Every structure is written in structure tokens, then in C-alpha cells.
Amino acid sequence: PSMAAPATLHHRRIQVDWTRDGDDVDVRVDIPAMPGPDREPLSLRVRVTLPPTDDQFHLVVPWSDRVFNYTAKLAALPAQGQLSIGAQQYPLDAPRTTASIDFTRGIWPYRSAWNWSAASGRIGERRVGLNFGAGWTDGTGVLENVLFVDGKIVPLWEPIGFVFDSAQPLSPWRMRTTESDRVDLTFTPVYSRRQDTNMVVMRMQLK
Fold first, then answer.
1. Cα separation of 195 and 35, whole Å?
2. How many other CB atoms are found less than 10 A from the CB of residue 61?
């Protein structure tokens, strides 16, 4: 499917619906019972706008003649909606809410490992986002390191180095351009998620 095609995930624990309406994307997420002692339901409704004047970042990573990845990264998009957890409701107001879209298809190598960071937000009235990656594009001649400012893309054209302690994932992470001082950021994590999915023919570890 493409970003324009509708997509639905139905599972006994979660339902996700993605539909495109002109320049807008509607996302619906319903979880009947969240993990935890209270088992509260979660409901998310978000409408994300893809302004026709915004730049879009599309990348093809050629690992070989038969193994490749196509990815689209869209950051700092205008959005609005509402998040409900149990009886609590959290409005996602249009002037303060932004969203990112990461759409990927491809045929991956048997083993892959990489670092990735993405952010979307507002600084005053300006929409600002970033997409940085390291590891998975090494040796391919392409990079996914870009800034998004008011819908315009600013390519960095140089690698980003990730410096962190894998044994202590909640300690600060530092991201720097390796060939200049254009980017020097420190992120302080507030949450760490680990996942190890082993399906015998396929295994994914998220740290």
C-alpha cells in the first residue's frame, strides 16, 4: 500500500485505522484495555494535514540490486484531535499539535541494526522537526538526516553520530554531525522500552 491507501489493523487488543481524505490523514486508535492494574481503555483520534506546499522527504536505500528500502519521512505536520484514557480527556489543539509520518517499504538484509531519532514541534509560530539516522544507510551513498522548518527541508548531507550507553538507556544521548559542528544535540530520555520478538524465521529486538 501507499500513503494514500487506507490501512487497518484489527486485533483483540488494538484497532488502528488510517484513511486519507484529500490533504488530510485520519488516524484512529482504540485499545479496549491498556496494560496495568486499572485496565483503562484508550482512544485516540488525530487528523494530520499534509500541506500541499510542504516539502516531502523520500529516500531509497540500495543495499544491493535486489535488497532495498524505500522510506518517506514527514515531520512537523499540523495536526489536531483528542486522546482519551479512561475518563481523562486530553485535547490535541491545532495551534500546539504537530505530527510525524514514517512510511517504509522494502526488502531488508537478513540482519540490520541502526539508531534513529525523530522530533516534531513548534518554536513560537514555526513548525520545526528533524529526522536523524545512523547505521542502516552506511555504505549506500545516501543519508536520511534532515531538518524540517515550516514545511521546508534542510538536508544535512553528512552523517550523524549517536553517543550513548546501551547499558543505561535513560542516560543522556548525544547526537552530533561527524564532519562539522552543524548539529550538537543532547536528548535526556524519560522512558525506556525494550522488546524482543522472536518468530523463529524473523526476530526483532527493540532497545
1. 15
2. 20
What is the pTM assigned to this prediction?
A: 0.87
Q: Which residue has the cell 486499572?
A: 38
Cα–Cα separations (whole angstroms), residue 187 to 72, 120, 174, 180, 191? 24, 14, 6, 19, 12
pLDDT tens digits for 68-97? 999 999 999 999 999 999 999 999 999 899
**Are β-strands 68-85 and 57-62 bridged in parallel, bridged antiparallel, or unpaired?**
antiparallel
- What three-state secondary structure class fits 147? strand
Other Cβ atoms closer than 10 A to 26: 15
Q: Residue 33: left (phi > 0), alpha (psi -120 to 50), or beta? A: beta
Whose grid coordinates read 496495568? 36
Residue with grid cell 515531520, as numbered in its chain: 75
